[in-house]
Every structure is written in C-alpha cells, then in structure tokens.
Specification:
Layout (H helix, E strand, L loop, with lengths): L3 H21 L7 E7 L3 H13 L9 E7 L5 H10 L5 E4 L2 H10 L5 E6 L18 E5 L5 H12 L5 E6 L6 H16 L2 E6 L3 H13 L4 E4 L3 H5 L1 H10 L4 E3 L2 H5 L4 E5 L1 H16 L15 E6 H6 L6 H6 L2 E3 L1
Parallel strand pairs: 1-2, 1-3, 3-4, 4-5, 6-7, 6-8, 8-9, 9-10, 11-12
Antiparallel strand pairs: 10-11
Helix pairs in contact: 2-11, 3-4, 5-6
C-alpha cells in the first residue's frame, strides 16, 4: 500500500509537471482594433459592441477595442486618428467617412472598416463596391436616387415650394457631386429651383445658414455629412425659426425637432461594421468583402415640427410614414 509520503510526492510531481506545462504554453493572442467615432450618438457605439458580443467577441477578454470618441467641432478626430494609426492595432473601424479620411491621412496602410460613408469608391477607398480590392470595406450611404427621393418627399410635404436650399457638409470628393447632380435632375422634373450651400466646419456652416436665409430659400434638403449631424440642433432650430420645411439624412434630426427624415437604421449600419470586423479577424481580407448599401429606408415625420411652422401635411404622406413623432 502506498504510504502518505509517496502519495504526497506523487501529488507534488503532478503539480510541478502541470505548472511547467503552463509556463511553456504560449499566451493566447487577443486581437487589437481601433474604433474611432463621434460623441453625437452613443447608441451607435452600443450597437457595434452589442453585435461584436453576439459574434463571440468580449471586450477585455477575447478582443481589445481601443475606442476614441471625438467631440464635435474640435480637433479630436485628427489627433485620435494619429494616435490609433500609429498604434499596434491590426484594424481600425471608422464610424463615418470623416474619421476614415483622417485615418488614411495618418497611415495609408492601415486596414479599415467604414461604418458609413458617402462616396467610398470616389474617395479611393475601393476600386468597386463588389470588389473593393484594397485594405478597406464598409457601407456606402449614397444609394442611387437617394437625394431625388428626399426632394420628392419634401415637395409632397410642401407642394408650394419653389426654391430649395441644398445644405451639404459631405466631406471628401465625389459624394457631394453625386448628391448635387441627383438634386439638379430632380429639380428639373419637379419644376423647382435649387441652390447648393457647402460647409466644411462650424463657422462655414453658420455662414451658409445665414446665406440661405438672405437668399430667400423656401425649403431645405440636407445632404449626407458628419458635420451637419454633429450640429443638427443648430440646423433644425434654424429651419424652424425661418419656417423652412426641411428633410434630413438621419432620424436624429427628426428626433431633435426637424420636420422629416428619409433614412436607414444607423444602428444596423454599425452592426454591419461589427460583422465585417468579425470576418476580417477570422481571416478574411477587407478587399474581398463587398461594400453594401443600407436597407431599408424609413420615413419619419415630426408632427410637432410641422405645427411649429404652420405646415399642414397631406394625409397620404402622414399615413405613409413609418414613424410619427408627436
């Protein structure tokens, strides 16, 4: 029969072997990615991390997400892009095009997923939507005919409109031009006049709003752009104070008091970004992952905003809305 000493010796030997094996076992590598977004919508961040968790990625355990949140109208985006692009991350998720442009400036070789952007091909992030072919993929927010659709909805809401301002804060190249061409073509069909006003920063945005008022514009179509989204309250209040029927690119404008929006589910766009991130971390190349359009789009109408500018909306348009804000 084995003595107590023998049993203790065997146990100590087993523990020593186990500890030795653990000491020589390589550490599990945790992927590191960057995530650059703005402070204008915390729900987008929650949507991204929620989808990552659903796909099996837990922050601090199976993935290290280094998130940076840029304040509106600041130099944060550039500084954070410099920081992330120089770090040891293997991929950066840019929530929107302005952040992607800053990351590429800081490090042209950094792989990226772009949550949403106007003109990803035109801005050189991809050769085509089906086959990006490079180190970037994501979601293209300029669905063909999108601006024309918004103009028709605005004209339906306010049939007497004759002069419509096109407010553009779209960054980069290509995106503004696509929206403008669509607007001009649709204006000819609707028999209205349009004028484009473009801003790249807050001071310019304030100036163009003053110009829209001075020029006697009667309505407003807001193009895609992070600057306008970050300063949506300023734009919404301007439209209300000047009694301008307006349509916007995100439901956040309608929730802030804007008249109406024709927009996709932005939270879903960030879930798509998480799914693309998951595929890349599991071995896919960004250039092999097609760029997609958001779908579906939803019509949101703010009835209180309509009352504020004494606009009686057609019953058919109200009935067609996916969501009414009272």
């Amino acid at each position: 029969m084995q003595s107590e000493w023998d049993r203790r010796t065997c146990l100590q030997s087993a523990v020593a072997l186990l500890l030795g094996a653990c000491a020589h076992r390589p550490a599990v590598r945790v992927p590191r990615i960057g995530f650059l977004t703005g402070s204008h919508n915390a729900q987008l961040v929650d949507a991204f991390f929620g989808e990552l968790a659903r796909l099996g990625w837990t922050q601090g355990r199976t993935i290290d997400v280094r998130m940076r949140t840029a304040r509106p109208n600041s130099g944060d985006a550039r500084a954070f892009a410099d920081e992330l692009a120089a770090s040891d991350v293997e991929l950066i998720v840019a929530a929107a095009l302005p952040y992607a442009l800053e990351i590429r400036r800081a490090n042209p070789n950094m792989p990226m997923v772009i949550g949403t952007g106007a003109g990803l091909v035109a801005n050189g992030f991809a050769r085509s939507m089906d086959r990006p072919g490079g180190i970037t993929t994501g979601m293209e927010e300029l669905v063909p005919g999108l601006t024309g659709k918004r103009m028709r909805l605005l004209k339906s809401a306010a049939p007497d409109l004759q002069r419509i301002a096109l407010l553009s804060t779209t960054p980069g190249s290509g995106g503004h031009e696509v929206q403008l061409a669509d607007a001009v073509a649709t204006a000819a069909q609707l028999g209205v006049a349009v004028r484009a006003y473009r801003a790249a920063n807050l001071d310019q945005l304030k100036d163009v709003l003053a110009s829209i008022h001075a020029d006697g514009m009667q309505g407003l179509v807001n193009f895609q752009g992070g600057l306008s989204l970050a300063n949506r309250q300023l734009i919404v209040d301007f439209a209300a104070e000047n009694r301008l029927p307006a349509i916007y690119q995100a439901v956040l404008f309608a929730e802030a008091g804007g008249l109406m929006s024709w927009a996709p589910d932005q939270n879903e766009q960030l879930r798509v970004a998480a799914r693309l991130t998951d595929k890349i971390l599991r071995g896919a190349r960004p250039g092999d992952l097609p760029i997609t359009y958001p779908s579906p789009y939803f019509l949101t109408i703010n009835l209180a905003a309509a009352r504020r500018i004494d606009l009686k909306l057609p019953a058919a348009l109200v009935k067609a809305a996916d969501r009414l804000i009272h």
